[in-house]
Every structure is written in C-alpha cells, then in structure tokens.
Amino acid sequence: MAEEEPAGLDERGRRMWRDSLAIWSLTPAHLVLLEEACRIADRLEVLDSILRSVSNSVKRNPEQFADISGLLGETRQQSGALKALLAEIRQGQYGASPTVVDPAGGAGVSDLTARIARKQAEG
C-alpha cells in the first residue's frame, strides 16, 4: 500500500517522498522521519533561492554588501539535519530488511552479530 503524500510538500519534497518510498520499506516511525526530511529538503530549496537572489543582486551592484552569514549558517544546519535524518532512515533499513544491502558488506547490527557468531563457530 502506498503511503499518502504529506500535505504541504513542495516539488522537491514530493519528489523525495515518492522516490524514497519506491526504494525503501519504512516503519511508521521512519515515515515520520522521512516526512521531516522532505520538509527540510523543501526548506533548503527556499534558502538556496534566497542565496541566489542575494548573490545576483550583489553581482549587479558590487558596492552593495549583503551579510548572508546567518543565512549560510541556517543552510548548514538544515543540511546537517537532513543528512542525519537520512542516515537514521537508512540505518533502519539495514537492520530491518535483509534485502537491503549495506555498501560496507552487511545489513546492519543484526548482520554483524550473525557474522561474529559464524566466525566464533568456525574456530
């Protein structure tokens, strides 16, 4: 069953929601994390458009100075939050589904435990 797209998402967030559900099987808790990640992706799109607008304005009028340090800081924080949410969602996938393969060669903590047990049994 396809999960209903959360209300209020913009284009980037909707695309992220659809694409993520196409590749991940998520628990209700991870769906909440994904929804927040989609909202952050939309927020980053807005922040980027503001940064581009300020940058273009300064290019047209070099004497004009724009202090964008706060905007850049918020963008970094939102990017970090998005990265953390996506890592949490991926981690849930590695531990929850043996069909999702971890690039490091395992399927999360449960797979690591099984590999340790096999090594101990071998000798």
Q: Radius of gyration from the CA trace?
A: 20 Å
The SSE order reads HHHH
Characterize the overall form.
elongated
Number of helices: 4
Number of strands: 0
* Total number of distinct structural domains: 1
Q: What separation lies between the terminal Cα atoms? A: 46 Å
> Sheet with the most strands?
none
Oligomer: single chain
Low-confidence stretches: 97-108
Mean pLDDT, as a whole number?
83
What proportion strand?
A: under 5%
Structural class: mainly alpha
In short:
This protein has 123 residues and is mostly helical.
Describe the structure.
The chain is an all-alpha fold and 123 residues long. It has one domain. The chain has helices spanning 11-23, 28-60, 69-96, 109-122. Helix 1 packs antiparallel against helix 2 (28-60). The longest helix has 33 residues, at 28-60. The protein is elongated and about 75 Å long.
Topology summary:
Blueprint lengths: L10 H13 L4 H33 L8 H28 L12 H14 L1
Helix pairs in contact: 1-2, 2-3
Keywords:
elongated, mainly alpha, 4 helices
